[in-house]
Design brief:
single chain; alpha+beta; 19 strands; 43% helix
Length: 428
């Protein structure tokens, strides 16, 4: 069931919108200026990362995993083999144990969740805002407070009790890659997580009261907290038959509630407050590490610029592919940050030109034309400035590539200037 709320708000007047657009000019200028250091820094980051990866690719040494050669101490090494352990990781509460690199318990609670959607309908000088609140039951990673829900009937939907269990993530303390010892940092980066496989005859342990088990998942039905019992000292001093009868009746009611809960399949018919618990493991398997050989273990390798390189990959992966993939990722990040810098410049200029759009807002015929013109101008100027900034950065870092970019940026600015001059001559 959904609940709808409406409210009517006054649309800002033309004078108010003009004032807001002028205030936005300062913010727009700040955004436009911020685009320059973003773009310049990104080009330096890209070049430095590319150089570092090239240096690493030239320095890396393939070494066998089954023995440690002292001659490779301090070198960047490429090691492939089975990440293995004899450690048994266990969760005593749920009776789960496995010889694994990692054991993770994930806990979720069934909750009623509020969602909202707002539609704005302009009606003359007013705007009608219609907000619809809908509700769905979902498995959530943490309890959801329902006390402030807009539907009063849903405010008590989620029990206020805390989750009885929490997430747990255990790592094997002794993990080896052949003769090399791997650290917790390595284990955390190793992938290959799979659901824990329970034995066919697995039974829910007594440490999980009322627990249910189905398809590799524990389900714990919610039970309301019992009313606090009368302190033992008071019970002894009173010796009241009426009190004893009341306590007996309360215990019987509690047993009836437990019986009702146990008779319900949480997996099939969950209710808010129910909890489900799932387990996953990372079992021993082949991995590849590219790091510095240090005292029988592996650690990040420092390049000549002081920055480090460290790679952990699942499976047997050649060093050449690892570095090629890293170069490709560096290129993608570079283009994403270039786009981000360009957009910061563009939206900044749009805000700077905002007063022009607002000035003609009252003339419907000109409104669309002017808005298109300011968008085009902001796009051209932003593109030209971005090219110039990238070109200057590349002149600083790599001159042979930077000079053509600067020429292109200047050409774009000249084109914008000539277009404006031509448009001014046509209107004269």
């Amino acid at each position: 069931m959904a609940v709808t709320e409406e409210r009517i708000v006054d649309n800002p007047s033309w004078i108010q919108r003009l004032g807001s657009s002028f205030r936005g000019v300062l913010i727009g200028l700040a955004l436009f200026v911020a685009g320059f250091p973003i773009l310049f820094w990104n080009e330096g980051r890209a070049v430095d990362t590319a150089k570092r990866l090239k240096e690493g690719a030239g320095a890396v040494v393939d070494v066998p995993a089954d023995k440690i050669d002292a001659a490779n101490e301090g070198k960047l090494v490429h090691v492939s083999g089975k990440a293995d352990t004899q450690d048994v990781l266990s969760d005593d509460v749920f009776g789960v144990s496995a010889t694994a690199l990692r054991l993770k318990r994930t806990v979720e609670v069934y909750q009623t969740v509020e969602h909202s959607e707002t539609k704005r309908i302009k009606e003359g000088d007013k705007t009608r805002e219609v907000t619809t609140y809908s509700y769905s039951n979902e498995w959530c990673s943490k309890p959801v407070d329902s006390s402030q829900y807009h539907d009063a009937a849903k405010r008590a939907a989620n029990p206020p009790a805390a989750m009885p269990y929490g997430d747990v993530d255990k790592l094997a303390a002794n993990v080896s890659l052949g003769a090399f010892k791997l650290s917790d940092a390595h284990v955390k980066r190793i992938g290959g997580k799979v659901p824990f496989q329970f034995p066919a005859d697995f039974k829910v342990p007594q440490t999980v009261p009322n627990g249910q088990f189905q398809n590799g998942t524990f389900y714990v039905p919610y039970t309301a907290p019992a009313t606090a019992a009368t302190p033992a000292a008071q019970q002894t001093s009173s010796g009241s038959p009426l009190l004893a009868a009341a306590q007996t009746a309360s215990a019987a009611a509690a047993n009836a509630v437990v019986s009702a809960v146990v008779g319900r399949s949480v997996a099939v018919s969950p209710t808010p407050g129910d909890v489900r618990v799932m387990f996953s493991v990372v079992l021993p398997h082949d991995v590849t590490v590219v790091e510095q050989q240090t005292n029988g273990t592996l650690a990040p390798w420092a390049a000549s610029d002081g920055e480090t390189l460290s790679f952990v990959r699942d499976g047997i992966v050649p060093a050449a592919k690892i570095f090629a993939d890293a170069q490709s990722a560096n290129s993608k990040i570079t283009w994403l940050l270039r786009l981000a810098g360009l957009l910061v410049m563009y939206f900044g200029l749009k805000m700077v030109l905002g007063p022009i759009d607002t000035l003609v807002d009252v003339i419907p015929i000109l409104n669309g034309i002017v808005a298109m013109g300011t968008s085009l101008a902001a796009g051209l100027v932003s593109g030209a400035c971005a090219l110039l900034t990238i070109g200057i950065a590349w002149i600083y870092y790599r001159p042979l590539v930077g000079i053509p970019l600067v020429v292109g940026g200047v050409a774009l600015l000249v084109m914008v200037f000539l277009k404006k001059k031509k448009a001014a001559a046509a209107t004269a």
